[in-house]
Amino acid sequence: MSERHSCGASARAHHRWWAGLALGPVVTLAGCVDNLAICTDGGSGTVVVVASQAAIVVQVRDATTGTPLAAGARGTIQDGEYVDSLRVQTTDASGQPLTLGAGRGRPGTYSVTVVHQGYQTWQQNSVVVALGSCGLAAQVLHADLQPLP
Question: Are strands 28-33 and 36-41 parallel, antiparallel or unpaired?
Fold first, then answer.
């Protein structure tokens, strides 16, 4: 039996399935799906996806073919003196890694680096992870790796 939680710290801390839909002049979504929470940001109606597991989530693909490369990729995020390694965040039904993540619960301004054998190093700087009305709002990045010549 699943439990209902508000879209706050307790909702992000638990891996529970709950979704609600209020119909009226404005449609409002709120809830938690595994490690993601979907909330509305105040009165603006903007939907914010909040990840309780990682501040930075990176989808790694071959830039030419679109083939997922998270399985063989590694990397880091850095905010000043803080450094964290990217780890498998999500997998497909067969267990193959789809995304990498790091920086659990930590806002900041990050440099993100991804490396994979046979590909050029990918880096993105000044990635801002902020606290929103629903908590920490993860940044989802798309690392399209270029094959080495």
Answer: antiparallel
In this predicted structure, the answer to whether residue 125 has a pLDDT above a threshold of 90 is yes
pTM of the entire structure? Answer: 0.67
**Tokens at residue 12, please?**
């992000």
Structural domain includes residue 3: no
pLDDT band at 43 (very low <50, low <70, confident <90, very high): low
Cα(30)–Cα(6) distance, rounded to whole angstroms? 8
Is 122 among the domain residues? yes
Strand residue runs (E) in 25-149: 28-33, 36-41, 46-51, 56-62, 74-79, 82-85, 87-91, 97-102, 108-115, 122-129, 131-132, 135-136, 139-145
Provide the residue range defining the domain that includes 63: 56-129+137-145
